[in-house]
Give the backbone structure.
Amino acid sequence: MSDASAHPAEEAALREPWESIARQRQAVEMGMWAFLASEILFFGGIFAGYTIYRSAYPEAFWVAGGHTSLFYGATNTAILLVSSAVIALVPRSARWLSLGSFARMMLWSGALLGIAFLVLKGFEYAEDFHEHLFPGPDFELHEKGAQLFFAFYWCLTAIHAVHLIIGIGLVARLAIAGARDPRWFSQTPAVQATALYWGLVDIIWSIVFVIVYLPGRG
Amino acid sequence: MGRASHHRRQAPTAPGIGSVIRRPAWVLFVLLVVLAANIGAAFLPVPHFAKTAFNLLMAAITVACIAFIFMELDRKSVTMRLFAATGFVWLAILFLLIFSDYGARP
């Protein structure tokens, strides 16, 4: 099969109700961005709450921020940035049949980096529990407002982790389906949609890292 | 229709893997440098406010690089970019409202 025979591949990827793959691709991308806008607002509500409480308890948030693990936070940020770059290669290569296996390799690499992130997060959570940094009667810090900071910490990082798990699932699904039908893989808008979702998961984390892990240093 | 899908029909010959990787690899390098600068700045003996402002500026650069390069907004039509901007615009309005109160308190 040569790369020039695009038509059968387009037919394999075309779905109802669209008449052309170009229209389908445009609709899927727009729909995805609309979904991502709702995701931004979903996390935006938590960021807004964080901002208001941080302005109410600036010192407690600063001190509490210093108790998060910068090692795990920074390492995971770097891992996620690398994974984003790797996933960004997928829409750039998947459209050519001869680069299909490279694109699927990048999908698996991104998924593995996502798993590495989750494993490190598990170690970090274990350390946090050990240091009594979970809000409740045994909470380690006594400044008024410090528990609120850690309520945001757990909430933001856990919800982000759920998003990442979904992202890993989507990426793996695409890699498996793409290996089964390489022609479909070369044309399906699922490639763009999956890459966009992964990008948003990294965007959210870039903000979480700055507001959760960087206060209280030095 | 975006330029990317137009390109799809125009270029039947696949590019080399090197040319596919080059741009995202450079952006990744920049983002890792930005991350290092952000962590380094967090330890500087300067007022908290200045550190936070710098940290948020670096986060904004990171977000812009991911959205425009990794998520390819730089190659999309104006309509698609407007669509992508809506979430951020509403978020900006939300924060404008928050700071009109909390930012103005003595």
